[in-house]
Specification:
alpha+beta, single chain, two-stranded antiparallel sheet, about 150 residues, 4-stranded antiparallel beta sheet
Length: about 150
């Protein structure tokens, strides 16, 4: 039998080609056409490995904790800046009404808490003058916590 011929093959006939295996690349076919073979990267629909959600969950927990801490600090007044000392302002109001306004019987000054030390801030305090409840206006003059007290009304 001449070389290149198999059983039951006539001389001049093409010898059958072996089936292409995985990753062998394109194979020539009869007529000189190239056709892709199967088995290359992604040929079998390989799935990407699933990523863990753990880093995302840890990051979200950190953001929530930091946000909660910031809101808590804001509610407690950490970002409010300097505020007037309520007891000192109440004592100052009584002293000014006695010394500057000549009111002899002044008691029980009540001023709001946490008033900012900012030029132009105004608020009202209540005082008892000669047994009668009165209101006085307090205005902050500068950022050194100096203030003026208005006449009782």
């Amino acid at each position: 039998m001449p070389p290149g011929q198999g059983w039951n093959q006539q001389p001049g006939q093409a010898q059958p080609q072996p089936a292409p295996g995985p990753g062998t690349g394109p194979q020539p076919q009869q007529g000189g056409q190239w056709q892709p073979s199967y088995g290359g990267f992604g040929a079998f629909g390989e799935q990407k490995p699933k990523r863990s959600k753990k880093p995302f969950l840890i990051g979200a927990a950190v953001v929530v904790l930091l946000g909660g801490g910031g809101v808590g600090a804001w509610l407690l007044g950490a970002f409010q800046g300097d505020t007037l000392d309520q007891a000192a302002v109440q004592d100052g109001v009584v002293k000014i009404l006695r010394e500057d306004f000549g009111e002899g019987d002044v008691k029980n000054a009540q001023c709001p808490d946490d008033q900012p030390v900012r030029t132009g801030t105004t608020f009202e305090c209540t005082v008892t003058v000669a047994g009668q409840p009165k209101k006085v206006t307090v205005r902050v003059l500068n950022d050194q916590a100096q203030y003026e007290v208005g006449m009782p009304r």
